[in-house]
Amino acid sequence: MNPMPAPQFDVAIVGYGPTGAVLAKLLGQRGWRVALLDREPGLLNLPRAVHFDGEVMRIFHAAGIADELLPLVRPSQGMQYLDVAGHLMLERKPAGATGVHGWANNYLFHQPDLEHTLRNGVAKHACVTPFVSHEVQSVAQDDAGVTVLARDLARDAPLQLRARWLVGCDGGRSTVRDTLGSSLIDLGLHQSWLVVDVVMERDVALPMATVQFCDPRRPMTYVNITGRRRRWEIMLMPGDDPQAMTQPDALWKILSRWIQPGDATLVRHAIYTFHALIADRWRDRRMLLAGDSAHQTPPFLGQGMCAGVRDASNLAWKLDLALRGADAALLDTYQSERAPHVREYIETAVRLGNIIQTTDRQVAAARDQQFTEGGPQEIVNLSPPLGPGLHLGKGAAGTLPGQPHLGDGRWLDAALDGRFALLCADDTAATGLLPEDHARLRALGVLWLIDPALASWLKRLGAVVLMLRPDRYVFGNAASVGGLRRLIAKLPTVTRASPGAQAGAPERVRRPRDVQTVSHP
What we know:
Elements: E1 8-14, H1 18-29, E2 34-38, E3 51-53, H2 54-62, H3 66-69, E4 74-75, E5 79-82, E6 88-92, E7 106-108, H4 111-123, E8 128-132, E9 134-141, E10 146-152, E11 157-168, H5 175-180, E12 184-200, E13 210-213, E14 220-224, E15 229-235, H6 242-245, H7 248-255, E16 264-279, E17 283-284, E18 287-289, E19 295-296, H8 304-323, H9 332-356, H10 361-374, E20 377-378, E21 421-424, H11 435-444, E22 447-450, H12 455-460, E23 465-468, E24 474-478, H13 481-489, E25 516-517
Parallel strand pairs: 1-2, 1-11, 2-8, 5-13, 6-20, 11-18, 21-22, 22-25
Antiparallel strand pairs: 3-7, 4-7, 5-6, 9-10, 10-11, 12-15, 12-16, 13-14, 14-15, 16-19, 17-18, 21-23, 23-24
Helix pairs in contact: 1-4, 1-8, 8-9
């Protein structure tokens, strides 16, 4: 009797945290068969991420979960770094107004709420199959794909499956990273912190903003999360007994500066060692890394989860192109673009960590004096350009521009649907293209959007025509028909459409007269 053939998938994702879930959702929207493997039976009830920014909300919008997520999150009331005397040294402003990305600049959230929303979104795609309570034991690749051997922990039974590509989103102790033989580059921060989450039982006068208490006697962080949830992060000092620190009496003693046992209920606590690490290799042929398996950042910017979500956004459309017959070498641009980008976030978080984690009182006094003399400094959201990769030219290429309004009042992202897009204010460029240019655009499914309302936005970016990638980063810009033709010639070549593409749907780019036009109302 022949054994049952292994289930076949286009992509296997190891790890069902936010990074893996976003990647699965974006691939599921395109119709690809995705296997999601995770050893846990459900969501982890541990204190973890609490912040994401406006760029990440754009990704959640692209993944189709922003509307469900909005009632569960709140715009940040800012972040303050206070010295020993309580004076302001550094500040990230409150994010009440709409930012450049069309959303608030910063949000706070309860991670189980986010993951529940993500998993509900993933469940809408029949092509995505979660395998929870499945522990991956080995992965092995060949020229055609990857074989995954896992153990169904609920039934104590083996599982074998095949996938054309595999992505390890399996965290800091990544099995996939070990298989790749990738090493971690140490960027110089390792420190243990006790993280405590509470739910308030009555109203107490607590800060609305996140506060970093830069006190060398015991650095601490306070976060007003959502609803009645609050968090304290407490740096472990030399001589601390970690086990004793996690006992309720010890926790309440630390928190007594702000709240008493009758004010709140302790709901979760954990000790984490914050790291600043980045893997030296994110791809080996058909296996890739994303999220904490590829990099780890201290929490002082609130960018750890954000980095993994950006990985998923960058990787999803590149895997889509590879599955559609594009040269798989384009997947090498994933690390070349993302590694320098995430490294800037990590190094900035390390610098901020060095400010709050100072425990030498003389050094802290000199630090406080420096800020007193120079005045408070503002922390602004980073938006570094990508490293070298799948973008062309100078200027805006490789950057994420702010999101403009269209002439009909919508934000730009509302008109985009996960494809390459050509944006211009009039149809001048369209009249100079040749049939082969249109054929190339049509094969890739490029959306061409003409809207006079984009004129000032394009001018600020130094472009007459702008080509956006599916992740909203700029592929390239052109100031003439010749420049546009050169951009089109550099687009990836595919041989088929995504399985999620609607059969018989009208092509958006056929001839200039068929270009989608948005006019002022």
